[in-house]
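Sequence, please.
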């Protein structure tokens, strides 16, 4: 009797050598040439078998539209914030005055080329006092969409496009959208528990959430990747460099750490893939499935899914309750502030709010820093509160 040759199901996957958008998991079915003996059999089930090189739905490539929409939303909100800021009206001096009311605050007040703190606060920046005392919990979400300056916006949006588009192509807009927003919330929550004397804005926590999810996705789908260690080392180095930047002043590394931790746990929940053995079995011809019973997910994937879901939900609830009760985690961790800023001879990590005493004589205004006693005299014609606050910030910082 002639030996019967069965068609093979080959699943190909590109190894993740870097963070490029093109490295997408993309299994396809490759049909071997049918023998004459099987030609009639294949005709009977051809309608049930995927055509050659058709994408398998469990690994389909999505069209990315949500992440670009997030980028557009952030840019539009930055423009609105600059309009609300109106530097020529509310400050004595501005940068790039040819932009009119869209000009930037003085560099000493905002080195990121952006608006004033008061304008960001009006737009929904994270202010712990307003969250706790005025019950404005929505600021934990709105601050994710605001940025402190043009440089801040460009850095975050470039990172979001590079990382987010690749993830959305692989996993779709629903899972990546939820991961982005929840990670951003987690970053805001940790930031609020540590940095309680300043406002905080930026998509950094959410972007770091995507980085954390990439790491956990590599771990939970470990068996389907080639060059595993190379991919892991590359990703860890990129994450370490980004976290190291967070020790510089004016950078909220607690938001980075909170977003990364949240995204890392959520990656095990949202980005778990079925194993290739199960996919091969599911898409194989009907006659070749007899006796095959491979599980969709491995045991370690299910365990990580359950543990991560418990940890992320518990952490969010505990953190939110602690925040609303006015807990300051710096009181329980004397060294934790070094995770956000390490003081050196070149910069100071003191970001406490400044205040001044103002004295007026005709058009002469003398401002004296409350903490250092440093003073300055300015000639002003009917200045408003915002202008005096800006001068105070420039003088005392």
């Amino acid at each position: 009797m002639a030996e019967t040759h069965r068609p093979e199901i080959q699943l190909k996957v590109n190894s993740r050598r870097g963070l490029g958008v093109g490295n997408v998991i993309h299994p396809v079915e490759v049909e071997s040439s049918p023998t004459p003996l099987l030609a009639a059999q294949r005709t009977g089930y051809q309608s049930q078998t995927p055509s050659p090189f058709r994408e398998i739905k469990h690994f389909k490539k999505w069209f990315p539209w949500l992440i670009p929409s997030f980028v557009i939303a952030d840019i539009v909100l930055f423009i609105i914030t600059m309009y609300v800021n109106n530097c020529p009206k509310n400050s004595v001096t501005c940068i790039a005055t040819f932009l009119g009311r869209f000009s930037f605050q003085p560099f000493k007040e905002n080195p990121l080329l952006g608006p004033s703190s008061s304008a960001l606060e009006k737009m929904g920046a994270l202010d712990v006092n307003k969250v706790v005392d005025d019950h404005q919990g929505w600021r934990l979400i709105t601050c994710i969409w605001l940025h402190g300056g043009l440089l801040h916006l460009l850095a975050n949006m470039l990172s979001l496009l590079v990382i987010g588009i690749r993830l959305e192509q692989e996993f779709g807009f629903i899972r990546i959208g939820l991961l982005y927003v929840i990670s951003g919330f987690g970053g805001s929550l940790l930031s609020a528990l540590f940095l309680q004397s300043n406002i905080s804005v930026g998509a950094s926590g959410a972007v770091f959430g995507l980085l954390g999810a990439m790491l956990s996705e590599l771990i939970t789908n470990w068996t389907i990747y080639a060059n595993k260690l190379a991919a892991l080392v590359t990703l860890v180095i990129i994450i370490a460099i980004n976290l190291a930047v967070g020790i510089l002043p004016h950078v909220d590394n607690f938001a980075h750490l909170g977003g990364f931790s949240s995204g890392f746990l959520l990656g095990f929940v949202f980005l778990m893939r079925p194993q290739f053995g199960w996919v091969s079995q599911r898409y194989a011809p009907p006659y070749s499935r007899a006796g095959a019973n491979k599980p969709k997910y491995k045991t370690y994937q299910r365990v990580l899914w359950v543990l991560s879901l418990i940890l992320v939900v518990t952490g969010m609830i505990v953190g939110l309750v602690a925040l609303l009760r006015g807990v300051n985690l710096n009181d329980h961790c004397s060294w934790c502030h070094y995770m956000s800023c390490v003081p050196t001879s070149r910069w100071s990590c003191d970001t406490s709010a400044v205040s001044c005493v103002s004295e007026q004589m005709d058009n002469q205004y003398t401002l004296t820093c409350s903490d250092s006693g440093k003073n300055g005299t300015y000639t002003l014609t009917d200045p408003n509160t915002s202008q005096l606050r800006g001068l105070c910030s420039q003088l005392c910082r």
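The first helix runs from residue 36 to 45.
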